[in-house]
Specification:
single chain; mainly alpha; Arc Repressor Mutant, subunit A; Methane Monooxygenase Hydroxylase, Chain G, domain 1; two-stranded antiparallel sheet; 2 strands
Length: about 300
């Protein structure tokens, strides 16, 4: 078996220890469908160094010193317990982006079955959020005074990703509930907002997971472009809505729902900015503003 395959199995074993609290190696082996002998072989170096303690507890602080066996690159400011939690956040971010992809594809094709599948993906997102919360609780319980504020930040990032998934759900729900298809002019604007907002999520998570803070300027630039697209989109909706007879309530409701789709992309962009601000605090101890990003933007616009 290759080293990569062994490391993948070891990660799975540590995952079981961290979240399922097994009492024996037999439980771990049964959970993963592997032999107890193989579990013993992979855990032996970690048990020897007291990284894993019977029965079976993972010491996150010591694991931080041992985690280079996975040949994962650490950022310059890593601390105990980040390795495993970041791995979960990485998977969660990829899943949320897939959820956003499917929601928009359903919107563009007006495909209710696809929209329903996108909504089902939210169950997995919620489970991942709970997994991060459990990891944070475990890390704090093992080291209650060690980097408390930084440990809780992982929970905040998971919450931000869950919020992005919720806005993806707004987009999918539009397809599920509305009977009218979106016209070509409006779809062009929405597609541009989708591409930019999704890229912002990816870049924001790259900044947080890998300390790539040089991405911040491009993320802010994308956010400004999304707000310009939002203004164009809402103007387009207002123009089309003005042509609808007053008594056509279904069509009026459609345009109100469509404006919420536009708002969803704008909020995804705002949350991406919040994630970057959180990354800056995490790595450089730069305090985040207590004013929500959308209100800071309004203040900046007013001052100009």
């Amino acid at each position: 078996m290759t080293k990569k395959a062994k490391n993948t199995t070891l990660k799975a074993i540590l995952d079981v220890i961290l979240y399922d609290n097994p009492a024996t190696q037999d439980e771990i082996a049964e959970k993963l469908g592997i032999t107890r002998r193989y579990v013993t072989k992979l855990l032996q170096p970690l048990i020897k160094e007291n990284v894993v303690r019977r029965a079976y507890i993972l010491d996150l602080k010591k694991f931080d010193e041992f985690s280079d066996i996975f040949e994962e690159e650490k950022t310059s400011r890593e601390y105990a317990g980040t390795f495993i939690i970041k791995d979960v956040l990485k998977d969660m971010a990829a899943h949320v982006c897939q959820e956003l992809d499917l929601s928009f594809e359903a919107l563009s094709k007006h495909d209710r079955n696809m929209a329903n599948e996108a909504l089902k993906m939210d169950y997995t997102t919620n489970k991942m959020h709970e997994k991060v919360r459990s990891s944070v609780d475990t890390a704090i319980s093992m080291n209650p005074y060690y980097e408390f504020s930084k440990t809780t930040i992982f929970g905040e990032i998971a919450y931000d990703l869950e919020r992005i998934a919720d806005y993806s759900g707004h987009i999918a729900n539009f397809t599920m509930k509305e009977s009218y298809e979106i016209d070509e002019e409006m779809m062009i604007l929405l597609e541009e907002m989708f591409k930019r907002s999704k890229n912002m999520v990816k870049c924001a998570m790259d900044a947080f997971l890998n300390e790539n803070m040089e991405l911040k300027d491009s993320i802010i630039d994308s956010e400004e472009k999304i707000h310009k697209l939002q203004k164009k989109s809402l103007n387009c909706i207002a123009t089309q809505m003005a042509e609808v007879p007053f008594e056509d309530k279904d069509r009026s409701t459609y345009y109100i729902s469509l404006s919420r789709v536009v708002k969803a992309f704008e909020r995804i962009a705002d949350i991406s900015i919040e994630i970057v601000d959180t990354a800056e605090e995490f790595y450089y101890n730069v305090p985040r503003s207590t004013t929500p990003e959308r209100f800071r933007r309004r203040k900046k616009k007013f001052n100009l």
